Amino acid sequence: MARKIGSHSDITGPKVRAAALRLFARHGFASVTMRQIASEVGVQAGALYLYTPDKQTLLFDLLREHMQEVLDGLAAEDFSGNPVERLETFTRFHIRFHLERRDAVFISYMELRNLTDENFAVLEDMRRTYEDALESILKDGQASGHFDVEDTKLTTLALISMLNGVTTWYKPDGRLSLERVEAIYSDMAGKAVRMARWKRKQMLGAAGQAKA
Amino acid sequence: MARKIGSHSDITGPKVRAAALRLFARHGFASVTMRQIASEVGVQAGALYLYTPDKQTLLFDLLREHMQEVLDGLAAEDFSGNPVERLETFTRFHIRFHLERRDAVFISYMELRNLTDENFAVLEDMRRTYEDALESILKDGQASGHFDVEDTKLTTLALISMLNGVTTWYKPDGRLSLERVEAIYSDMAGKAVRMARWKRKQMLGAAGQAKA
DNA sequence: GTCTATAAACCGATAGAC
DNA sequence: GTCTATCGGTTTATAGAC
Fold first, then answer.
1. Counting one residue from A and one from B, how many pairs have CB atoms under 8 Å apart?
2. Where residue A9 falls among pLDDT bands split at 50, 70, 90?
3. Which of A28, B14, B53, B119 matches a 20 to 30 Å C-alpha distance to A131?
């Protein structure tokens, strides 16, 4: 149980990542210095290199960790139900989960170009996996007649952009509660893709005529 | 008409701004050096200070110039017609105009925090003016019964986020033409805010009953 | 595991020659 | 208007003491 004095690897490590995440989001990767991060943690700059081989890898690890959490969180959601319900589950999950990780979301969008090509490719794959989850909902809804979408890929990107926007203005103690924001966005997303009632009736009518 | 040899102020000035815009968008303000910009233009680093007092002012001038162009462009559009038509005009303008200025759009979103508080406030005012133009369309449509929006401010931000997203993935020689992208986005925006037919009928019916 | 000290390079901005 | 040279300060990363 005895721990060597001066050994804080399992404490300092997470503190380094947390400080780096916050500083990168606040000031940008390029303009944050290793000395700033070290100062935030309460160690000297040289000590940081016990926890990361270099500055760029520190950024990459933060972004990969974030994307993995997003994918794990999505996998833990309950996606039973029809496409309309699944879309609501997705939009509510996305808003809630991303609002809790605004620093990481911001960095994920802005600092990708500070990565090497290989590191970028890894994150790009993870992002695509996430987008595919939404697109498959749209495709299913299109097939079942719940949705009326011209282009599922484009619509996927449009919806995610819309949902991401919430991270740029939402304030936890602001005018609207999280529940209300989730509801409004979820409603907008639904309306943007759902088949209109009159159009659905028209199609059902045409199908009936075809049968008769 | 004779021009002093070595005098290229009216040529080099724009070249400096163009190079800075491209480099800032590509690599981020903080990681672009004055020497890189100078090299791109074909002069030495010291010569740049004939065209800007310092690096930060160079960024600010680029962003203010961009926002002014956006506001001028918007003012030149024809906003006659009902709210549904005006919303389409706005969305198509936004997509077209922003896709032609992707570097500036990207920087406008990411590099605001590298500005002084005063400079930031100037751009924030201009941005708000632009958002207000969209919100007034939503308010008018809400009043006229064309739209069914829970919160015009939030919806404004959501729509602009959605439209901005196009700049992150659109490729001029991609699968979809600009016209088609404009049409799909405009359609999605319209559906997201428009009053459903059945709901409008219900309201008109209720109004009729109230009269009787 | 953290410190101090330092290497090697680079930065923004300025001064003065032409 | 542009150049060269340079000042004063910063950076990432490493070496070695404790």
1. 108
2. low
3. A28
Distance in Å from C4's C1' to A55's CA comes to: 21
**Among A189, A197, A144, residue whose Cα is nearest residue A164:** A189
Task: Return the structure tokens found at A166.
Answer: 């919430």
- Condensed to tens digits (0 to 9), the pLDDT of residues A108-129 reads 999 998 999 999 999 999 999 9
- Reference A86, options A190, A163, A159, A182; nearest CA is A190
Residues A102 and A178 in one domain: yes
Residues A135 and A168 in one domain: yes
- Residue B112 CA and nucleotide D13 C1' are separated, in Å, by 30
Partners of residue A113 in chain B, C-beta under 8 Å? 26-28
Nearest CB neighbour to B30, from listed A31, A196, A198: A31
Collapsing DSSP to helix, strand or coil, B87 comes out as helix
Q: Is the CB of A9 under 7 A from strand C?
A: yes
Q: For residue B184, give the nearest of A113, A150, A197 by CB distance.
A: A150
In this structure, what are the phi and psi dihedrals at residue B44, rounded to the nearest 5 degrees?
Answer: -90, 160
- What's the mean per-residue pLDDT of chain A? 93
Which CATH number belongs to the domain containing residue A35 in this structure?
Answer: 1.10.10.60
Statement: the CB of A30 is under 7 Å from strand C: no
Give, for all 212 residues of chain B, the pLDDT tens digit: 434 445 676 889 999 999 999 999 999 999 999 999 999 999 999 999 999 999 999 999 999 999 999 999 999 999 999 999 999 999 999 999 999 999 999 999 999 999 999 999 999 999 999 999 999 999 999 999 999 999 999 999 999 999 999 999 999 999 999 999 999 999 999 999 999 988 888 888 887 676 55
Q: In angstroms, how far is C8 C1' from B41 CA?
A: 28
The CATH number of residue B146's host domain is: 1.10.357.10
Q: Clarify whether residues A156 and A204 are in a common domain.
A: yes
Enumerate the residues of chain B whose CB falls inside 8 A of the CB of residue A23: none
Q: How far is CA B143 from CA A97, B134, B140, B194, B195, in A?
A: 35, 15, 5, 12, 11
- pTM (two decimals): 0.94
Per-residue confidence (pLDDT) for residue A3, from 0 to 100: 42
* C15: residue with closest CA to C1': B46
The residue length of chain A stands at 212
A42 and A61 together in one domain? no
Residue with tokens 């303009």: A31
The count of structural domains within chain B is 2
Q: Which of A85, A208, A94 is nearest to A140 (CA)?
A: A85
